[in-house]
Amino acid sequence: MNLKNSREVQSNLVPLYLKNKRLGKVHSKFKNGLNIQFEDELIYISHIQSPLSAHGINIFRDKLQKIMENVNIGDIVIFKENKLVFYSTYNNIVISLEEIDKVDLRIPGIQINRREIKNTVLYGVLRDYDFKNNIGLELDDKSYRYINLLIESDKRNSKLNNEIIKFFAGRGKGLTPSGDDILTGFTIALLAFNEENCFSNWIKDIRFIVDEKLTTEISIAYLKALTKGYLSYNFIELIYSINFKEKKIIYEGIDKIKKIGHTSGNDTLFGFYLGLEFLIRN
């Protein structure tokens, strides 16, 4: 899968989110993009040099800059005739989704057997990485206890799932707290090997337990997309790289993820590594 940063693209989850929606608003603004909210769905708009979000649209930088300069949080956004119309104090700005290519960001299945995970180059690289000094979660005795539960417990046990998820959800700082990112990475690994739908209880529990009482709306948006089976582009690449034998390519993919947020990329990689450990042990 190769996504060149020279064209406007949208996740194929976006049309599903916008179906039967009309009235939205600008939810939040950041350095490289903004979220718009339609009911309980968030859509992230960024520029074409950014990795495409699971629920995102990447447009040309000058278009994004125009939107960022003219709209404020709370401004109305209307979806009609396959167009997003931003109503700002200064002027109205239109993004036509018909002209933006769709990219399939559904989680790909892994072709290798679980027993082969420990022999992959990707697993070896992650196993040797210094997560302790690069993640945002404080690794104290309690954290280690729940990390061990995460990689040892039966994911059909919703009572244990509930306890584990509530420990990690919202733990740490940032728009997507470290604990949420660890849950995300862990769940990515499980979904990639979910050929028999044997982790359905875990997915269901993530979906219903993590809410605004536990963590941020931004984090919930990513976890929600994940439980629907959609991932940001960089993590699609990470899944594919488990089939690769060239360390250089794997390191390049991991380095892209490390750059996400302050520790968010490292936290998600740590969760993914723990997911691989779980699959190897179970």
How would you explain this protein's 3D organization?
The protein has 282 residues and is of the alpha+beta class. It has 2 domains: 9-103, no CATH class; 114-281, no CATH class. Helices cover 42% and strands 16% of the residues. It is built from 11 helices and 9 strands. The protein has helices at residues 14-18, 61-70, 121-127, 141-152, 158-168, 178-192, 200-209, 217-227, 233-240, 247-258, 264-281, and strands at residues 9-11, 23-30, 33-38, 41-47, 56-59, 76-80, 83-87, 92-96, 101-103. A 9-stranded mixed β-sheet has the order 8-7-6-2-3-4-5-1-9. A hairpin with a 2-residue loop joins strand 6 and strand 7. Helix 6 (178-192) crosses helix 11, helix 9 (233-240) packs antiparallel against helix 10 (247-258) and helix 10 crosses helix 11 (264-281).
